[in-house]
Amino acid sequence: MTEIVLKDIFKSYDQTEVIHGVDLKVESGKFLVLVGPSGCGKSTLLRIIAGLERITSGDIFIDGQEVSNIPASERGLAMVFQSYALYPHMSVYKNMAFALENLKMEKSIIDEKVRNAAKLLQIEGYLERKPKALSGGQRQRVAIGRAIVRDPKAFLFDEPLSNLDAELRVTMRKELSALHEKIGGTMIYVTHDQVEAMTLADQIVVLNEGYVAQSGVPLELYNNPNDMFVAGFIGSPKMNFIKVQVNKKNDNFFLKSGSLNVQVSDLSLESNDSFSIGSRPEHILICKKEESDIVARVDYSEQLGNETYFYCSTDKMKQLIVHQAGQYKVSKGENIYLRFDRENIHLFGTDEKVILNKIIK
Predict the structure, then answer these.
(1) Phi, psi (rounded to 5 degrees) for 34
(2) pLDDT digit string, tens, across residues 272-314
(3) Per residue in 166-224, pLDDT tens?
(4) How many Cα atoms sit within 13 Å of 47 on the Cβ side?
(5) How many Å apart are CA 5 and CA 311, to the nearest integer?
(6) What angle do the packed helices 107-121 and 92-102 form, to 10 degrees?
């Protein structure tokens, strides 16, 4: 079990700063996922931890030892790459054994480690095959097996599932989660796929343009985002955002946009203040006309059997995404009446920072 700590990490390429004072703690035995859009710095941060990139300033600690100037080969970490990086001319067995052979380890010990890892990953029958004779999922297992045999202090994964098809990615997510339970090692995983982040992580770190936007357990980020970026990035489809203004009536305050009128209490508001409210697709409900907040026109719908997505528009909103359980037969261009779940409306300021994560009428 290994704890990894980053303190005030900066990274620049010439005059361009790409990592801006990141602080991060990966607790021993945890599965931490770095997630964010392309170019946010997540792979750079992983390579910094691995020792493949030098930091401009800051400190890196592995089990309490400062390792910023220690080369990658001496940090005791194992990295699994997106491209698998297998030796094409070697068998699966040789690929997994190669690093141990370079360490002059006894053949009997190497054989035991390779076969134990192969059994764990269910690739025992492929040990004599070359990588070209394997499927993408099998190659990924070999790459993971090559990391396991080294008994590393921690495992680093750089978008390991992005080259796989959708169905296989689901299977491999389950296998990675099961692997973490079996071996109990510290794992740091990079992805741009927030579904992978939500399903795999003990802790998610959301990066945005080289900064940590928010860190926490998956449902904490989903239910209590710090800002509109996190609210929009975590969740699929993303949260709906609506610009509103404050109206005062009989000492009560309302957030208004067109026919949408949401009462708010216990907040210091001024008439005509501008905000944004956020509502997830599953928190916008189809209802009767007399119960509705707004009427929306259906521009497109996705019928998925057990659930339905509506992509709607109103006079004030170009797109509003609604998610309903079950099957709904609604034609393109038809109007539907919608009500916003008051207990699941988020309020954001003009700076896009959260003001309140629950508005209760």
Answers:
(1) -95, 120
(2) 788 999 999 999 999 999 999 999 999 999 999 899 999 999 8
(3) 888 888 898 889 889 888 889 999 999 888 999 999 999 999 999 999 999 999 999 99
(4) 13
(5) 43
(6) 140
Nearest to 312 by CA among 250, 210, 237, 202: 237
End-to-end Cα spacing for the chain: 47
Structure-token pair, residue 351: 């700076």
All structural domains of the chain, each given as residue ranges with its CATH number in brackets, are: 4-227 (3.40.50.300), 240-356 (2.40.50.140)
The 10 Å Cβ neighbour count of residue 206 is 27
Task: Return d(Cα 286, Cα 323) in angstroms, integer.
Answer: 9
Give the predicted TM-score (pTM) of the model.
0.90
Instruction: Measure the CA–CA gap between 88 and 126, rounded to whole angstroms.
Output: 14
Torsion of CA 256, 261, 267, 268, to 10 degrees: 40
For 40, the token pair is: 């946010």
Q: Would you state the structure tokens that stand for residue 192, as one six-digit string?
A: 């741009």
State the DSSP string of 139-176.
Answer: HHHHHHHHHHTT--SEEEEESTTTTS-HHHHHHHHHHH
**Complete edge-to-edge strand list for the sheet that includes strand 57-62:** 16-26, 4-13, 57-62, 65-66
Q: What average pLDDT does range 106-120 have in this prediction? A: 93
How crowded is residue 199: how many other Cβ atoms within 10 Å of its Cβ?
15
The rounded distance, in Å, linking the Cα atoms of 99 and 185 is: 20
Q: How far apart are CA 100 and CA 107, in angstroms?
A: 9
> Looking at residue 361, what is its pLDDT?
52
Which segments of the chain does DSSP mark as H helices, in order?
42-50, 92-102, 107-121, 136-148, 166-183, 194-200, 218-223, 228-233
